[in-house]
Amino acid sequence: MDTQRRSGEDGPAPFRSSRFFCVGSKWYFTTREGFDSGPFASRQRAETGLRRFLHVVRLLPEEQQVH
Q1: Along the 67 residues of the chain, how does pLDDT read in single tens digits?
Q2: Where is the DUF6316 domain (predicted)?
Q3: Which region, left, alpha or beta, applies to residue 29 given φ > 0 means left and ψ of -120 to 50 means alpha?
Q4: Residue ranges of domains in the chain
């Protein structure tokens, strides 16, 4: 379990689990908002997909960003 605090969090750190999961032989990542993305051929490709997703989210204007 990840117990590190994120920017803007107060109080005890909430439970966190891995953003990555495997169904059959296909890998997926999930966002805090509950969006699942995939399938990817490997966990490494799912990790790359998550990095790309987060990069795009950071490019959005503040009012359109996923929180």
Answers
A1: 445 555 666 666 555 678 999 999 999 999 888 899 999 999 999 999 999 999 998 998 877 666 5
A2: 5-58
A3: beta
A4: 20-62
